[in-house]
Write a structure and sequence with these properties.
By secondary structure, this protein is of the alpha/beta class. The longest helix is centred in the first third of the chain and has 17 residues. The radius of gyration is 15 Å and the shape is globular.
Length: 159
Amino acid sequence: MNDFVQINYNNIEENKEYNKIVHTVIKKCFEEEGLDKLKIYVNIILTNPEQIRKINKEYRNIDKETDCLSFPMFEKEEIEELVKQKENVTLDILGDIVVSITKVHEQAEEYNHSFERELAYMIVHGFYHLMGYDHMEEKEKNVMREKEENILQNLNITR
């Protein structure tokens, strides 16, 4: 079985529940987008508000905590080409997703849904940023949201 994800904990305790959610969601994302036959993976960093704020300031020059950051290694067109090639792709990283677990807890409560749903959403959201999707324009946002909701529905992770 291909392991599509590497999980790192940055200033928070490792948690089996988090690991299970992340692995399940990333596996479904890879299957849905045709990446499951490639030798490629996602690096997930689970952290706290102070650490994500530092990362946001260092890499985006925004001195503010946030819920999720994504750092893609490929352009959307490059990923499409990798999927077409299938074989001849060497092991590589699709990108990094950084998630503030504290924010996940806060937002789950704020939006009145489960922690599992909020963490799953953050991972799916970050994944689609790595895939080259964005939500700055309404048309792009609709495409991205549809893809995100499709993954969550297929996993039966509801609000």
